[in-house]
Amino acid sequence: MMPPITRRHKRNNPEYCEPAMTKYRQNLKTITILLATTVLFAGCASVNLESYIAKTAGEALEVAASETNRQSAQAYLLRAADRFQGQNEHRAARKLLQSKQFSPTTEATENQRLLLAMASATALEDGDWAKSIVSGIEPDHFLNYERNLINRAARLQEQTYRLAGDNLAAAITLILLSGADTDANTQSIHDDIWKNLKQTSDTQLADRKGRAIGYEAQGWLELAGILRQPGINLDEQGRMIRNWQNNWPDHPAAGALPAELQLIASLAESQPERVTLALPLSGPLSSAGAAIRDGFFAAYYEDDSAERGKISIRVVDTSDQNFRSLYDELTKEEQDLIVGPLEKESLAALGDMSTLPVPVLGLNYLPREVTAPDGLYQFGLSAEDEARQIANRLDAEGIDQILVLIPTGNWGDRLETALLDQLAENGGIALDIERYFREDNLRAVTADLLGITVSRDRAIDVERTAGIDVEFEPRRRQDADGIVMVAEPTVARQFKPLFAFYFGGDLPVYSPSMVYEGNPDPSRDRDLNGVTFTDTPWVLEKKNRFRDIVKEAMPDVRGQLGRLFAMGADAWNLSKRLPLLRQVDGATIDGQTGVLTMTPQGSIHREQLWARFSEGTPEQLPSLEPEETESDAPTMEGASNPN
Fold first, then answer.
1. Distance from the first to the final alpha carbon of the chain
2. What's the pLDDT score for residue 239?
3. Half-sphere exposure of 206 (CA within 13 A, CB side)
C-alpha cells in the first residue's frame, strides 16, 4: 500500500479539522474571556473601582456604567480622566468628561469635572467645548475650590474664557484672583489682565464698566477706557496713566502697572535729549540728506510734547567721512542717540560691532547675512517691504501665478528675493521673471514675458519643418493671473500699453511706489490706468494735517523728495519710540511712510497704502480686510499727527 497522503488546508476550509489539543486551547480561551466579561459586568461587588485601570475611554465608560452607585461611578470617571491627562491623552479625557453619566451630579463632583474639563479643553484648543464650559459659570467660579487649588483653577478658567473668545471675563477672573491669592505673582497677573482688556471690544468694555462691581474692577476698566480715547498720542497716554495712578492711589495696579503701561508712562522721562543727525549734506546724496533733515526738524517743531529747552539736536555731514571714526568721536561726546547714516556703506561700518555704546537709528539696512549689533535700529524706504506687500496683496486677491518685470542690478536682486520669498510663503509662484535695462528693446522684453516670442518661434519651426507658409496668429501664455511691473514712470508708461498690444491687457498689473512720481499728472499717467500700486500715507492719504502744513510752507517738497521728507519726520517720531517698539509686543506707530513695526532684531518695517490709476490719477483703495478697531490704542498714533 502507498503511504497516506498528508494534506494541509487553510483554516477557513470547511473540510479542515483541527487537532484535539488545538480545539481544547481555543475553548479554554473563549471560556476565559466569558468569565472576565462576567466578572467585569457583575456590579460593584465584582469590580473594585478603586483599583481597576481601564486602558481606553470606552472601557472606562463601560465599567462606570455597570456600577449601581452613581457617585462611585462618577468618582471613578474623574480618576480615569485625571490619569489620561497625566499621560497627555486629552482626547480620551474629553470623552469621559463629556459623558452623560455626569448627569445628575453633586456640586462638588461637578466642580472637579469642570476643572479637569478646562485643562483638557485648553490643551486641545477646543473652542466649542470651551464655550460650553464657560456658559455655565461666572468669573468668580474658581473661588469654589480649596485654597491650594485657587490659583490653578483661576488660571485654567482665564485660559478657557480666552479660548471661548470672552477676554473681558478672562480679565475679570484675574482681577478677582489678584485679590484672593496674596501669594500669586502680582506683576504677571497684572500683565495678563491688561492683555485681556486690550483684546476686549469697546462695546463690551463700555457695557461692563457701567455694571462693574468692586473697587479693583472699576479701576481696571477706567484705566482701559481712558487709553482708548481717539487721537491721543503716546506722550498724552503717558500723562493719562500717571493721572490715573494719582486718582487711584490704593488700586493694586497703581503700584504695579502692567509692563507695557510702565514703558509708556516712562517714555517722556526717557526720551533722548542729546541727538546727532548724521546725514550726507554734500555730494551725490546731498538732496536726499537735506530732505530727511528738513522732515526731521519739521516734525520736531510740530511736536508739542518736545521739551525744546532740554533737547539738543546736532547735524553732522557724513559725506567723505569714515563713519566708524565719526561714531567713535560722537560716543565720547555722550550723545543719547545718533540718527543716521543714510549711506549703506557707512551703516555697514558698524556691522562688525557686537554692542553699540550709543544707540543708532540707521536710515538704511544692513545686508541680510549681517547680524545687527545690539543698539542698532534700521529704518528706511525699503524696496523689500514694498515687494512683500505686493505679494500679500496678490494673495489676498487670489492671484497666485504671476509674471514679473524687474530692473537689472543689486537693488532689483534684493527686491526679487523679497518678492519670491513672500510669494512662496503665500503659496504663489512666479512663472517667469524678466530682468531688463532701461536701454533694452522693451517690445522684445514684453514679448518674451508674455510668451509671444515662444509662440512665434514655434510657428517658424513648423514652417521650416513642413516647408510651407503657415498662417500664424501669436498668442500669449494662458497660465498667468497677473503681472508685477517694477519700473519707474517713464518706463512703466511704455510697458503698460505693450501688455495690451501683446494680448495681455486683461491681466491685472501691480507695482511698487516707484511707478508714481508723487505728483498728479493725468495727461502723462493715462497710460498707467489700471495699475495698482502701493505708496506712503504722505503721498496717498486724502487728509493729512502735517503734510498740508508742510506743503503750505514748503511747496517744493514733493515727489521722491517728499517721500524722503516723510521719512525724516518718521525718524523724529521713532527716536522717541524705539524702546516701545522693541519691548511691547504688537506695538505700532502710524507714520508718514506707513504703519511702523519693529522686529526683535531692531529692523523697522512699513505697511503702506494702496491706490489704482484711473483717468491718469491715483485713487486710494480701501483695505481688503477691514478690521474692527478695538483696543490697540496704547501703541497707536495718527498718521496725520507726527507727534
1. 115
2. 82
3. 7
